Structures are given as C-alpha cells and as structure tokens.
C-alpha cells in the first residue's frame, strides 16, 4: 500500500546538516542551521542551564506527572514577563494568555490552528523572504500565506516602502507575521522609527500582528532592547500573538521549549481564549514536556541565574558580532570584489550574503562549506580558525 510513495526532499535548512554529516572532508564547515557554536566549533551548554539542571536533579519533590494542557504555569508567567516587560500593563490587567509550546515552531502551529478556527480573516502576510518553515506551518495549520515585500536585494537592506505599500494594500483584518528582532534569514530589521510606521499602518487597518520571537537577546545582546517592537505594539492596547523560542537564547535547542502568548483586550476574553487553546493542544500532543520548561523557569525566576544568563547571552551575541568584523576584514584584505558592508550592518545570527545558489553549490563542492541555497550563513557557526577558509571560498566564487 505504500509502494507509490515518492522519496521526499530533505528540509532546506536541516538537510544541510544531513549533507554536512556525510562529508568526510576535514576542512568542512557547517554554516547552515542557526545553532550557536563555540570558537572551537562545539555546541554550547550554558552554565546557567547546567546549574538549573543540577538544582532540578537535587530537588526530590519533583515528579514525572503530566503537566497541565497549557504547560508549566510558572514558566508561562515568566515567559510573558520576559517579552512584555516586568511592568507590562497588559499582564497586570490579566489580558495576556500564555501557553507552553514545542519551541517557536510549536507556538506558531498552535497559533495558526487557533486562528483558523476562531479568527474571521485567516490569511497571514509573511515577509519575502522569511524562515522557510513559516510557509509550511501556516497553510498546514489552516491559514493561507500571502507575501509582503521586505528585503531589497539591491541595497541588501529593508524595502520599507514596499512593505508599507503591501500592508496598506492587504485586507482589513489580515494577520501579519513580523520577526520581532534579528530577521531570519536576512539579518535586516526595521529601525525604531520604521517600526512605528509599520505599527501605524497595521493598527489603522485593524490587522493582527503575529510576532515570531526566536532571537530575543541575540540581536543587540540586550533582552529589553530586542523586545522593543513587540512592546510598542502591546503598549497601544491592541491585540497580538507572540511565539517565543528558548532554542537560541538559552541554547535549549533539543528541549523544544517555547511559548505562545495572545494579548487580548480584556481579562474575560483572555480567559476564553485560554480555554480554546486547550482544545487546540489536547488532540495535538495532550500536554507539553516538563524538562525544558522547568530549566527555563528556574533561570527566569531566580535573580542570580537570570543575571548570569544575561552575561552568557551577551557573550554569545558579542562573539557573533566579532565574527562579522573578522569576516569583513578578511574579505577586504583579500580584495574580494563587491561591497561587503552588509556583513557588518545585518544583525543576529545570520548574514544574507547575496550569493546565488550556483555560488553556494560551488562553495560546498570545492570548499566543503555548507550553507542554505539562499546564500544565508550562520555567523554563529564561524570561528577565527574557519573565517580565512570561508573568505577564500567567497573570493573564489565571486571571481568566478
Ligand atoms: C534556522 O533557521 O536555521 C533555525 O531556525 C533552525 C530551524 O529550525 O530551521
């Protein structure tokens, strides 16, 4: 009965790691998936995560019972505070409902299914380009995707006017997906002033913002600064959805830990929304796993661990920024043709190099450098040792 099944293609991002793992070359470098690596090219488990785990292990009152459908209550409360701010009026007024989710992807999917069932205008506008999984999560969750202009290949920056024009032309009430900070894959974010312009258009058209917040703390190194866009939309009193992930900022990739918050106009509505989110989650996976939520809640809820976390987070963000400078300087020193200032200007984990698929394939074939076909490189995968090799590869492919 399964004879007719065709071989599916590998995932455009995670498939890069599959190909990387098969390559026996000692010079290979994986700049595909957005996962932080140390200067030695190793995955990093944060010290605060180790400490939180030790505390959990020592606590004999912990058991392995089911969590509630919406997850660990303390984790949900602290996650909402992290993104909205400890003094958030919306939280004080009990207008925010938060559920634990299977990282950012799970939060987006639960949000999509909730909107498909309860929101009158289930269509979502996403930036071009966007994280590839957005284009799959939303339609499969019952919300068709439409594009809006975002990245301008000519300037390698934001096509602000194109974005504003598209949002103005989008229907009243449409859902708009916004990357809260450190846009993936381009590393191009609106300025604070541009965010204000975007907010005004979205609110004037009663559109519904859905923030994907996977990099809080990774863009600027400051958790509060990176929450600016989301907080400005919540401060105006309107509704929004927020998907949070702790994969990058706590290095909890495999724990699949994140949250979905829905900011409503009243406490009564938030409570009803919460009851409906349970009906989305229960038939999907019943209730979420506890471990990642307990780690994150220990860090978020303990003053010392939280302070240590911000230091470790800043160190990761700073190493990435230093990689930007080193790569830029090395390309300059090689005399590589082209303007590479976008490497310095773009922020967060990724640089959108502007290299085309043929150039990417050349670099993989000849230099064993693995990256996504859209020309995105994960700066977090680079080190002082591997930068000269990457610069050689870029130089060779640009010179053709
Ligand atoms: C990425 O874009 O590389 C990350 O968000 C990991 C993923 O799941 O795609």
Automatic annotation (TrEMBL):
Signal peptide: none
InterPro entries: Aminotransferase_I/II_large, Asp_trans, NHTrfase_class1_PyrdxlP-BS, PyrdxlP-dep_Trfase, PyrdxlP-dep_Trfase_major, PyrdxlP-dep_Trfase_small
Domain Aminotransferase class I/classII large: 27-394
PROSITE patterns on file: AA_TRANSFER_CLASS_1
Catalyzed reactions: L-aspartate + 2-oxoglutarate = oxaloacetate + L-glutamate
CDD domains according to UniProt: AAT_like
UniProtKB keywords: Aminotransferase, Pyridoxal phosphate, Transferase
One family name in Pfam for this protein: Aminotran_1_2
Domain of life per record: Eukaryota
Cofactor(s) demanded: pyridoxal 5'-phosphate
EC nos: 2.6.1.1
UniProt xrefs under NCBIfam families: PRK09257.1
The family this protein is said to belong to: Belongs to the class-I pyridoxal-phosphate-dependent aminotransferase family.
Additional note from the record: In eukaryotes there are cytoplasmic, mitochondrial and chloroplastic isozymes.
Subunit: Homodimer.
Protein name: Aspartate aminotransferase
Source organism of this protein record: Sphagnum troendelagicum
């Amino acid at each position: 009965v399964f004879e007719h099944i065709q071989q599916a293609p590998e995932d455009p991002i995670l498939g890069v790691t599959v190909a990387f793992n098969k390559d026996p070359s000692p010079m290979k470098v994986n700049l595909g998936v957005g996962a932080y690596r140390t200067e030695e090219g190793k995955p990093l488990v944060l010290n605060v995560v180790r400490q939180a785990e030790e505390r959990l292990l020592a606590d004999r009152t912990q058991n392995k019972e089911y969590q509630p459908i919406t997850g660990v209550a303390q984790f949900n409360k602290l996650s909402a505070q992290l993104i909205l701010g400890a003094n958030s009026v919306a939280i004080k007024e009990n207008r925010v409902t938060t559920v634990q989710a299977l990282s950012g992807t799970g939060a987006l999917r639960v949000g999509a299914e909730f909107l498909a069932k309860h929101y009158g205008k289930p269509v979502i506008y996403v930036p071009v380009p966007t994280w590839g999984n957005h284009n799959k999560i939303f339609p499969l969750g019952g919300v068709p995707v439409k594009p809006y202009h975002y990245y301008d290949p000519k300037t390698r920056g934001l096509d602000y006017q194109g974005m504003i024009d598209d949002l103005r032309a989008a229907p009243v009430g449409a859902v708009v997906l916004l990357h809260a900070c450190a846009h993936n894959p381009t590393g191009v974010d609106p300025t604070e002033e541009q965010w204000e312009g975007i907010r005004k258009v979205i609110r004037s058209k009663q559109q519904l913002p859905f923030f994907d917040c996977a990099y809080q703390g990774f863009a600027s190194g400051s958790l509060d600064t990176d929450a600016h866009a989301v907080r400005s939309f919540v401060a105006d009193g309107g509704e929004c959805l927020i998907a949070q992930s702790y994969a990058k900022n706590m290095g909890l990739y495999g724990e699949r830990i994140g949250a979905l918050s829905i900011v409503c106009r009243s406490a009564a509505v938030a409570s009803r929304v919460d009851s409906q989110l349970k009906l989305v989650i229960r038939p999907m996976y019943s209730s979420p796993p506890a471990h990642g939520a307990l780690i994150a809640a220990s860090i978020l809820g303990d003053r010392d661990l939280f302070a240590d976390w911000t230091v470790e987070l800043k160190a990761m963000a700073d190493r990435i920024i230093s990689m930007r400078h080193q790569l830029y300087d090395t390309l300059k020193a090689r005399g590589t043709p082209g303007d590479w200032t976008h490497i310095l200007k773009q922020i967060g984990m990724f640089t959108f190099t502007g290299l085309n698929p043929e150039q990417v394939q050349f670099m993989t074939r000849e230099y064993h450098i693995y990256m996504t076909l859209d020309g995105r490189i994960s700066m977090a995968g680079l080190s002082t040792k591997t930068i000269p090799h990457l610069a050689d590869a870029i130089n060779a492919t640009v010179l053709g």
